[in-house]
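[[Local backbone shapes]]
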Amino acid sequence: MKSAEIALRNFASTTNFLKRRFSSGDLSGEGFEDELENEGQPSGPQTKTDSNPVPTHSVSQSSDLTLNFRGSNTTSAPTSPHHSGVSSFLSRATSLTGSVTSTVQQIARTATNKDRQKILLVIDDHQTDWSKYFRGKRLQGEWDIRVEQAEFRDLTLASSSDSGSVVSIIGYDRSGSKVARSFRPDFVLIRQHIRCVREDYRDILLGLAFGNVKTLPNCSQGLFLPTSPHHSGVSSFLSRATSLTGSVTSTVQQIARTATNKDRQKILLVIDDHQTDWSKYFRGKRLQGEWDIRVEQAEFRDLTLASSSDSGSVVSIIGYDRSGSKVARSFRPDFVLIRQHIRCVREDYRDILLGLAFGNVKTLPNCSQAYNFQDRPWVFSHLIGIQKRLGKENFPLIEQTFYPNHREM
């Protein structure tokens, strides 16, 4: 900015010198007078004329520069072509001076003071120009904001516990040669994923943390904020459409109070007969004020199940439609309430219990309890263990005898 001001002053002084050099007073020298006098005399035979001759032609255009020779009050000689050229030169020089002055003033208003600036590094793709959001902004009214934007793949970094981090943005010039622009960021805004399928940029994050550079989100979180300013057009579109959706919104809100949100619901599977309607005990109830409770009820005999160690268990309830055809309704239960015996004389549903345990589905009683309590001898054996620790006086039991089958009795 200082060099531009010095150049402006030099140009202005040169222009003023030219104005003085080609002014009317400076053009009254002898050489120039003789030249004009020779131009006024004819080359052939001369005849006597009046003392005040009338010029053969009048001046058709006015000039900014006038010449007065020997203080004569007579009509001045016609304007010299050389003289008119000086006038046009001065006019062009004046306009050039004005344009240079306005340019230098504009540069002075927008120039960034390198000694009073903060550098913001935005790690994002170039679909969004982040510099426009900080253009003309200042921190505390004194510090300019310089925005540097690049993707993770274009960054290299060197950090020191004493001097902080130096970040370099790798790019290419017009000739295709690789060039690097280095700086010390004061703040980093992370708008890209640190890890993806084929790329891992944790080294950049660790370097910023080692250099104690402030980031958003901070380095310990290491998360990407999904909102990008180029999506802000969606919000402006929605704001313009608000007036058209006012009546629809009230209707939707009324429906939402009575309907179940499939994206915000938890499924409770109750394994019991249909003598008790368990859905009425959970109707209108919510978990943590946000999650609806959807109740599915069926008996063990109406259930089929498929479980995966990764995705959990998918339960299907087998039923019949009005035409008598078999239909299945499938879902992923979040919780199971067991209200039936797992084993009885003719039926054994341990496969359903094992499938729920394999899918890590929460149950009441839990799967280990339900499995342990399905055999009474197994339960009594644990009670005997407690009795041996506490003593018969403190934990009395009715004496029992176990046989593996009826043939051994």
Q: What stands out?
A: Residues 305 and 315 are 5 Å apart (CA to CA). The chain is about 30% helix and 20% strand.
